[in-house]
Write a sequence for this structure.
């Protein structure tokens, strides 16, 4: 589909836009590029929908022993080290600005 100045003016009227000549020319260029890209996409041959392989053949079940790991307690970082990079802190926690009144 070829688009011209008349179509741009029509779309601008429908959109209640007042375009200058330079804006209308820019809009015309943009719309032509969009339509060219749409034409390229329309010419592509779609790839048939091929189902993915069944994941249950290769992945362990979430309830199997291979999926579940033991809980391990690890030491935590020191509070002072965690708060060292905070913009505002009170020694125990971060201070954040109120976002909702």
């Amino acid at each position: 589909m070829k688009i011209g100045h008349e179509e741009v003016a029509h779309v601008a009227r429908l959109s209640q836009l007042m375009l200058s000549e330079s804006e209308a020319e820019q809009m015309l260029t943009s719309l032509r590029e969009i339509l060219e890209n749409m034409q390229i996409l329309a010419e592509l041959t779609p790839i048939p929908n091929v189902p993915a392989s069944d994941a249950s053949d290769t992945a362990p079940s979430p309830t199997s022993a291979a999926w579940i790991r033991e809980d391990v307690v690890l030491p935590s970082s020191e509070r002072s080290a965690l708060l060292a990079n905070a913009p505002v802190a009170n020694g125990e926690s971060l201070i954040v600005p109120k976002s909702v009144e």
User: Anything to note?
Assistant: The CA atoms of residues 5 and 28 lie 7 Å apart. Residues 21-43 form the longest helix (23 residues).
